[in-house]
Write a structure and sequence with these properties.
The chain is mostly beta strands. The protein has no helices and 11 strands. The strands form 2 sheets. Strands 2, 4, 5, 6, 9, 10 and 11 form a 7-stranded mixed sheet that branches. A 4-stranded antiparallel sheet has the order 1-3-8-7, with no helix packed on it. The protein is globular and about 45 Å long.
Length: 116
């Protein structure tokens, strides 16, 4: 059973940085697109960043220039470097991975709280 495990969440002051990591385990697989989503209290889950197996990435407008997504295909990991964090970045961040067969996996989520 494939599992995605996120790490790196926590509490940070506005203007600070955090680095999220997501590691996949539990099977023999390769992933096509890997993504980070977030969900603020009372809000819908939104896409923050995505990266293809070839390394092409794109970002939500709200995080462009502040967040950077990267991946290690050999290790099946994806990271999200978050700089200049703002209170509106607060939420639960989820890792998502899509296999070439179209199967989608989700991590359990990690809380990010940015204080003003």
């Amino acid at each position: 059973q494939v599992q995605l495990v996120e790490s790196g969440g926590g509490l940070v002051q506005a203007g600070g940085s955090l680095r999220l990591s997501c590691a996949a385990s539990g099977g023999s697989f390769t992933f096509n697109t890997m993504k980070w989503y977030r969900q603020a209290p009372g809000e819908q889950r939104e896409l923050v960043a995505r990266i293809t197996s070839g390394g092409s990435s794109n970002y939500a407008d709200s995080v462009k220039g502040r967040f950077t997504i990267s991946r290690d295909n050999a290790k099946n990991t994806v990271t999200l470097q978050m700089n200049n964090l703002k209170p509106e970045d607060t939420g639960v961040y989820y890792c998502n991975a899509l296999t070439w067969a179209g199967v989608s996996y989700w991590g359990q989520g990690t809380q990010i709280t940015v204080s003003s």
